[in-house]
Amino acid sequence: MTEGKQIEIHFISSMIFELRGKQIILDCDLALLYGIETKRLKESVRRNVSRFPDDFMFELTKEEYHFLRTQFASLENGRGKYSKYLPFAFTEQGLQWFLV
What we know:
The protein has helices at residues 3-13, 27-34, 38-47, 62-70, 92-99, and strands spanning 16-19, 22-26, 57-59, 88-91. It is α+β, with helices and mostly antiparallel strands and 100 residues long.
C-alpha cells in the first residue's frame, strides 16, 4: 500500500465514531469527503428522506453531540463557529446509499 493511501485511510478512519452501538460518520465529515457544504448535504437528505431506509441515519441528541465535542481538543466555542443544529450521524447502511 502506498503512503498516500495509508494517509487517506487514516484520515477517513479518524472520522468514524461509535455511537448507539453503530459505526457512524457525522454529516460535516461526509460533506467534507464529497466537497460540499454541510448545509447542502442536510437539505438534500431532508428533501429525499423517503428514499432511504429507516436506519440510514439519525440526529444526535444534545448529550451525544456534547460528548463528541468534548473528544476534540481543537473545537472552539464561539458564535458562528459551528452549526446551531444538531448533526446527523450516518450509519454504515446510510453510507452505502451515498457510495452507490
